[in-house]
Amino acid sequence: MGDGLNVGILGVTGAVGAEFLALFERRAFPVGRLVPMASARSAGRTVSALGREWPVVEPSEESFAGLDVAFFSAGAGRSREWAPVALAAGARVVDNSSAFRMDPEVPLVVPEVNWDAVQPEHRLIANPNCSAIILLMALAPLTRLGHVERVIVSTYQSASGGGAAMMEDLLRQTRDALDGLPPRPEVTPHAYAFNLFSHNTPVGPDGLNEEESKVVAECRKILGRPDLRVNPTCVRVPVLRAHSESVTVEFDGPAPSVEDARAALEAFPGVRVVDDREGNHFPMPLEASGGDDVLVGRLRPDPSNPWALCLFVSGDQLLKGAALNAVQIAERLFAPVGV
């Protein structure tokens, strides 16, 4: 890779953008030149990364010139506007928005699950929804033990999924509540401190909100299972960081044993089994926060269905659910031949 890659980040001042910068250093990602990009109100400031300060610029044809890879994390609208520009400039694009996920020409990738979807001609790769990534890291190993017919998942989604502004809103509301003040939500649609509510995306005519629809569609695409039955319920909980999920996996015959499921999960890269029944210690968002691994536990048979297995999952939404997954994609894209 010579002296390193020329790397751009669109949305560098957001919560996910900050994680990109930290990951470059922690994972020794080979950055030669960094071009941090954000909206006009952030242009002119600097961000710290890799031992120096880098000026933030507005996206333009010039800012994408000469880039090897551009990470997008500024929303679907900005991705649709600037991804074609980055591609025309010769960059590969890893997009963290929903803009291209369901485009049949664009691979939607969790590297540990479906890297074979990426072909040499693919220069635009979509990063999946955070809830779908965390679910699939636990589900993919189990698909090797039998044919999965149906997945029932209830999510416990943290403020980090709504970005830095929602995280700050939760902190402020919590301080107010502890001081005896009434809730004053500024970012969330309802009181957030000491409360939970259905995921704050519009509900469609089928009764699913947008987050739930994404989980269904993206799991089907990534697993190559358009017939997979998925029943999600997505909920915001007053946790600052890391999403959790309660999952029931139904097979087309007797479910695999807990022992076989544990072995499959322990062998899967990026998963850490936390399943201490005696100590009543299972995946928790506090322990998943800041970590690369998706935590999986509460492994048990479904007492109502001998063809089903139950589990509980927790993973950092900003890392494996967003920035880390994108960086892992780029690491594979630019890995030396033979590695």
Short description:
By secondary structure, the protein is α/β, with parallel strands linked by helices. The chain has helices at residues 15-26, 61-64, 76-88, 111-114, 130-143, 163-178, 210-223, 258-266, 285-288, 319-333, and strands at 5-10, 31-37, 46-49, 52-55, 69-72, 92-95, 124-126, 148-157, 197-198, 229-236, 243-251, 271-273, 294-302, 305-315.
Draw up the topology in text.
Elements: E1 5-10, H1 15-26, E2 31-37, E3 46-49, E4 52-55, H2 61-64, E5 69-72, H3 76-88, E6 92-95, H4 111-114, E7 124-126, H5 130-143, E8 148-157, H6 163-178, E9 197-198, H7 210-223, E10 229-236, E11 243-251, H8 258-266, E12 271-273, H9 285-288, E13 294-302, E14 305-315, H10 319-333
Parallel strand pairs: 1-2, 1-5, 5-6, 6-7, 8-10, 12-13
Antiparallel strand pairs: 3-4, 8-11, 9-10, 11-14, 13-14
Helix pairs in contact: 1-10, 5-7, 5-10
